[in-house]
Amino acid sequence: MALHKTKIDINKGNREKIIEILNARLADSSDLKSQAKQAHWNVKGMSFIALHKLFDQVATEVEGYTDLIAERITTLGGTAIGTVRAAAANSTLSEYPLEITDGADHVDALSSALADFGKKVRQNIDETDELGDKDTSDLFTEISRGIDKSLWFVEAHIQS
Questions:
Q1: What is the DSSP letter of 1?
Q2: With contact defined as beta carbons under 8 Å apart, do 155 and 113 qualify?
Q3: Is the pTM here over 0.85, yes or no?
Q4: Distance CA 36, CA 56 (A)
């Protein structure tokens, strides 16, 4: 995919690699948001209202990260590949179990997705730094902190 012209001082080859990394996380973040909404819409049980609200909060926060990632792609001269179809085709996250309703099962499934996404983002912190883009590395650090906090909030429901 051709890059748009920019005066950002990161060489074209590195920008292409960084944009590829960002587009991979864009697909994952779009998928993660939809997984949080799946949990939000379908959770049942004694903790319904708390989990219903929490899962919606997670989806909203992840949507913000999705926007940050997409805007960084275009800032670097790339094209954000952000449709639902693209996310479905390109997400590296595991498929969310559609048949579950129990709150604990949703907590387990969503916390697994959050942990997987967080692990990939942490890897991207170092990768983008090594490619000479401390700004994208910093963006991934910000996302990592937020994902870890969301993971804590979700996991706390099954910890004792």
A1: -
A2: no
A3: yes
A4: 7
Cα Rg of the chain, angstroms:
17
Cβ-contact 92, 27 below 8 angstroms: yes
- What is the rounded average pLDDT of the residues 57-61? 98
Q: How far apart are CA 130 and CA 156, in angstroms?
A: 35
Query: Which residues, in sequence order, are CB contacts of 44 under 8 Å at separation 6+?
Result: 101, 102, 103
- Does residue 82 carry a pLDDT above 90? yes
Scan for tokens 């994952």, then name that residue: 28
| Structure tokens, 14 | 């590195």
Dist. CA 125–CA 47, nearest whole Å: 35
Whether the Cβ atoms of residue 69 and residue 124 lie closer than 8 Å to each other = no
Q: Please state, in angstroms and as integers, the Cα–Cα distance from residue 13 to each residue in 2, 7, 78, 125, 126, following that order.
A: 11, 14, 12, 18, 17
* Helical packing angle, 48-75 and 103-130, nearest 10°: 20
Length of the chain: 160
